[in-house]
Recover the amino acids of this structure.
């Protein structure tokens, strides 16, 4: 096992650098011992977009999640992700094999997304009792094409991609498998675990940019209700959404039922909220590309953000602690 402090140079070379591949021509300075910076070259009509996010809520699949969450933030601004910088902090007593597995996960996810690990920092610390990964991402976008969360206008339709609670469902299925198997069939739990395959919103971001959008926001902590609130708040508009139009998988409903949590307030990476004038056209284009999507509501004048269901109208407010942390 590794001692507290910076990871030794030989481990760094073996467990970290050896996993990383160079795959973006924009990256012109690469990770190595003593290299504290990376460099990205861009064209004159392009802007660089940066985003950063830590992953702390799960141990299983942490490397994969860390990459997707940051790449999704970049995609939500309309940018094409280029690469990431990762800070990995591991508890005292961690074995080298654990670090190598995390790096392999990170590199596999980067390979899928055609992005690059541009640099980072790795250390062992007694200040943490579980691994923490912080990822900073960089992407590029044409200067006039940057999309914000705050671009929604009254009358715009709101399109949601994929399904509510995907990420949370996959985390719970992996971390609480035994408890779920007491009441749910194994095949349901196995399907729920595989929801991690849906985590990237880069494909829908590309299609949305072609169709034309006013706002994009990836659904993360706080779930669908949290994302709707953030979209409305950032844009200074009201929102009316319809509960029965929000796509959700049966597996998510069953998993949330076991722990008595609300699937619409559960961390939902893999799903994107998109504001646009022609929601049905966007849904059509997304479905042609094999991406499930639905128009779930619209932006309104004023500040009321409501979710309408058959028997009640629910006012939504800022997201509190994600439902995942209640388990």
């Amino acid at each position: 096992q590794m001692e507290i402090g910076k990871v030794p140079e030989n481990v760094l070379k073996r467990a970290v650098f050896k996993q990383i591949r160079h795959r973006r021509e924009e990256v012109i300075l690469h990770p190595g011992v003593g290299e504290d910076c990376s460099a990205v070259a861009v064209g004159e009509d392009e802007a660089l977009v940066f985003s950063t996010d830590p992953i702390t809520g799960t141990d299983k699949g942490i490397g994969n999640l860390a990459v997707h969450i940051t790449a999704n933030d970049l995609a939500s601004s309309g940018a094409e992700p280029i690469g990431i910088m990762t800070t990995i902090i591991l508890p005292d007593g961690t074995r080298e094999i654990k670090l190598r597995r995390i790096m392999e996960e990170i590199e596999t996810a980067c390979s899928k997304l055609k992005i690059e690990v541009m640099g980072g920092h790795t250390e062992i610390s007694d200040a943490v009792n579980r691994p923490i990964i912080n990822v900073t991402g960089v992407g590029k976008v044409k200067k006039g094409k940057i999309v914000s969360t705050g671009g929604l206008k009254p009358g715009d339709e709101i399109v949601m991609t994929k399904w509510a609670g995907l990420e949370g469902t996959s985390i719970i299925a992996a971390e609480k498998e035994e408890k779920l198997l007491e009441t749910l069939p194994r095949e349901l739990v196995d399907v729920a675990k595989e929801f991690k395959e849906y985590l990237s919103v880069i494909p829908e971001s590309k299609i949305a940019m072609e169709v034309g959008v006013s706002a994009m926001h990836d659904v993360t902590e706080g779930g669908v209700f949290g994302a709707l609130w953030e979209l409305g708040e950032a844009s200074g508009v009201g929102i009316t959404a319809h509960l029965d139009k929000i796509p959700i998988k049966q597996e998510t409903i069953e998993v949330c039922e076991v722990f008595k949590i609300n699937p619409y307030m559960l961390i939902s990476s893999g799903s994107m909220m998109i504001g646009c004038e022609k929601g049905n056209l966007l849904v059509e284009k997304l479905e042609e590309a094999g991406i499930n999507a639905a128009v779930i509501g619209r932006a309104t004048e004023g500040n009321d953000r409501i979710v309408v269901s058959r028997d009640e109208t629910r006012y939504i407010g800022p997201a509190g602690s994600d439902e995942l942390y209640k388990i």
Observations:
- The longest strand covers residues 80-91.
- The CA atoms of residues 59 and 131 lie 7 Å apart.
